[in-house]
Amino acid sequence: MTDLMGIMVVTLMIWVGLFAYVYRLDRKVSRLED
Amino acid sequence: MTVSRLVTEALAVMAKDLRTEFRTRVALNALGLFALTVLAAVSYTVGPYRITAEDRPFLLAVLLWIVIFFAALAGLDRSFVKEEESHTAPLLRLAASPTAVWLGKLAFNLVLIYLLMAILVPLFCILMGYRIVLVEGFVVLLVVGGFALAVITTIVAAIIARALTRGALFSVLSLPLLLPLLIFLIQGTTGAAEGTSETISNALRAVVSMGGIMTIVSAVLFPVVWSE
Amino acid sequence: MRGAHILKWLLLVWLAVVIVAAFFYVHPAEGFIGESSRIVFFHVPMAWISVLAFLVSCIASVMYLKRRDPKDDIRASVSAGLGLLFAVLATTTGAVFARIMWNAYWNWDPRQTSITILLLIYAAYLALRGAIEDPERRASLSAVYAILAFVTVPFLVFIVPRIYWSLHPDTIINTRGANEFDARYTQVLMASLAGFTGLYVWLYTIGCRIEAIRQRRRQEVL
User: Fold this and answer.
1) For each of chain A's 34 residues, which pLDDT tens digit applies?
2) Which of B6, B25, B187, C168 is the most exposed place for a label (fewest CB within 10 A)?
3) How many CB pairs under 8 A join B and C?
4) pLDDT at A7
5) What does the mean pLDDT of chain B come to?
């Protein structure tokens, strides 16, 4: 059970990190478009 | 445009290509020498008796088709690349309709590939000791497979002739399109060597449908590639 | 604009919930070793997106040849780039799963063969794009290649696996085994597919905008 928990936490961290990266990219592109 | 005019134009394009080809023999040398060198290497290293009898129909079919396909990739782009390199393409654009050019180049590639097969396949069977049980089925497979191979390589050659790095790109672009064909032909040839006609007819159906669809799509798209 | 903003944050929460559900809401499926069935919730969406991206790329290519709008060319190339990325992810997640289930990362299963060829097609398409300098010529030639490749794919997906025997479990491609997994499994898988499709759409729009800016700059320089 703890293994599963650990893998889930890592997966979640990857997803949040990816989201943050894409979100910032999106903002940056919006700035460049103006 | 009438059909007869189209055919005459296509034949003229093919005749012109054949004449220049027999003058320089660039594509023929590339195709033929590649096939013979690989065949010599394979038959020297593997030989007729190294593979066990039950593996033979399949493994030898793999080797045969790989030699044919890679030989085709070594030379079948010449017909278009030559036009671009010698700057004769614009003239050909004026002289003949796109469809006629496509048909002519396809016919030229067909001549090359059938010539290659006529020499290579008997040699392969002799050198490797490859016994084919259903010879008729095998011949039909070779004819249809050669046609599909020529159709696909012709349109890809037309595309890469207009790019910068031609030689490497031809194999890179052709292989993904050719792989299903390769799988079907290997399967069918295995059937021909084992004597199961059902495998041959299954493979034939797949090859015919793939060749047919590719012919239609190429005929529609070729003018786009050619007249850019 | 505001709606799009909310959708982005919704996507964050949505996929986070999918991840939690994939690990704790679903019971491990029968017939799979240990907890290995959980990777399906990530592997199947990757494979789905790689095919979807390919489809989008082909439709954009056809549209380009029809109306010669440079935007369609951008759409095709961006979608192909994303498709390549997701195809690599599908291949690696699939290989990990194959290692656990069949004890080999790679065994040329028909599904692995078809994804490999899809990878090759994407790579060839992008190589072709890199080899042509003139933008219009690049657009039309790569569009032709994309259509040719698109014609090949059904043979790989439907006919090659019939000729060869497959180890790959039938999940969504074949619906006859729908009751093999419980209802929770289907719920999470569908939610995951929806979430990843949303992610693809977002990445795709960003990619198209970046390309548009790049092209505008290039024109300004000239």
Assistant:
1) 678 888 889 989 999 999 999 999 999 998 888 7
2) B25
3) 88
4) 87
5) 88
C-beta separation of C189 from C41 below 8 A: yes
- Interchain pair C131, B187: CB under 8 A: no
B129: amino acid identity, one letter: G
CA distance C96 to C90: 10
Residues B129/B52, Cβ–Cβ less than 8 Å: no
List the domain boundaries for chain A: 1-34
Chain B and chain A touch, per 3+ beta carbon pairs within 8 A: no
Task: State how far residue A11 is from chain C, nearest Cα, in angstroms.
Answer: 7
Predicted pLDDT at C181: 56
User: How many whole angstroms separate alpha carbon B167 and alpha carbon B164?
Assistant: 9
Find, among B86, B96, B102, the residue nearest to B159 by Cα.
B102
For the full predicted model, state whether its pTM sits above 0.90. Answer: no
pLDDT at residue C220 greater than cutoff 70: yes
End-to-end CA distance of chain B: 21
CB-facing half-sphere around the CA of C186: CA atoms within 13 A: 9
Q: Which residues of B182-202 are buried (b: 16+ CB within 10 A; e: fewer)?
A: bbbbbbbbbbbbbebeebbeb
Say how many Å lie between the first and final Cα of chain C, rounded: 33
B162 to C137: CB separation less than 8 angstroms, yes or no: yes
Residue corresponding to tokens 């595309």:
B159
Are the beta carbons of A12 and C35 separated by less than 8 Å?
Answer: no
- Give just the sign of the alpha carbon dihedral B153, B151, C108, C118: positive
Q: Does B89 touch chain C (CB under 8 A)?
A: no
Cβ-Cβ contacts under 8 Å for B154 (sequence gap 6 or more):
B76, B79, B80, B102, B105, B106, B109, B218
Q: Among B180, B178, B156, B151, which residue's Cα sits nearest to residue C131?
A: B156
Tokens for C25, please give them: 């809401």
Handedness of CA C47, C48, C51, C56 (dihedral sign): negative
Question: Model ipTM?
Answer: 0.88
Question: Would you mind telling me the total number of residues written for chain C in this entry?
Answer: 222
Using CA atoms, how far residue B95 sits from B78, B90, B101, in Å, is 20, 9, 9
Predicted pLDDT of residue C36 = 74
